[in-house]
TrEMBL record:
This is Uncharacterized protein. It comes from the Eukaryota. The lineage of its organism: Eukaryota, Metazoa, Ecdysozoa, Arthropoda, Hexapoda.
Length: 107
């Protein structure tokens, strides 16, 4: 059975040795919730607009965890949940030296 599994494994990965990264070593994503009032908007359009307004990062590489259109009032509301890396989170928070934050620090 071990020989069969090894043969199948070598066939599937093209005879290359593969390593599995432990879960603890995988990068964690930060989640951000964004609410946009108005008619339904596609997530790709929102990411494109955010990239145009934030030249500091690769917004188009953000992941869309959730998109929901809520009819809360007479107009519709868009609720997005995005995921992005810690590097983008540090820039947004103003923690990276020389970064341009999205929001000016409160005084």
């Amino acid at each position: 059975m071990v020989k069969a599994n090894r043969a199948l494994s070598n066939t599937l990965v093209g005879r290359r040795t593969t390593n599995v990264v432990p879960l603890a070593e995988l990068p964690r994503l930060v989640r951000a919730t964004l609410w946009i009032p108005g008619p339904p908007v596609d997530a790709e359009v929102v990411l494109h607009r955010l990239q145009g307004q934030n030249q500091w990062g690769r917004v188009k590489k953000w992941l869309v965890f959730h998109h929901e259109v809520k009819p809360e009032t007479a107009s519709l509301d868009n609720l997005f949940v995005f995921g992005f890396g810690m590097d983008a989170a540090k820039i947004i928070r103003g923690e990276r030296a020389g970064s341009t934050t999205c929001c000016p620090p409160s005084t």
